[in-house]
Amino acid sequence: MTMTRDKFFQPRFRRARQRRALSSSRWSVAMIANIGTIDRSLRIVLGLALLISAYDVLTGVWVWLAAAIGAVLMVTALIGTCPAYSLLGISTCPDRLRGA
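User: That's the sequence. What structure does it adopt?
Assistant: Structure tokens below.
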């Protein structure tokens, strides 16, 4: 009786494990680091400059544009992944840091 029970339950659990493995691998592939150290530093400096100028120097629509671009640059620098780089297949990150 235990053999039939094991044979009955095993395929379902195996499929569930495979589904979980596929969904987790999709996430890890999407979040591979593709921004190197120099690129990250430039993004932080330029992002801060845009945010400061949006707060202090610019007026009108330029404030919102500079703030949005500065925020995007800062976020991508902090997480180490650029969605545009992922779409274009570009990577400035060395292989040892990317996890490949």
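Residues 52 and 67 are 8 Å apart (CA to CA).
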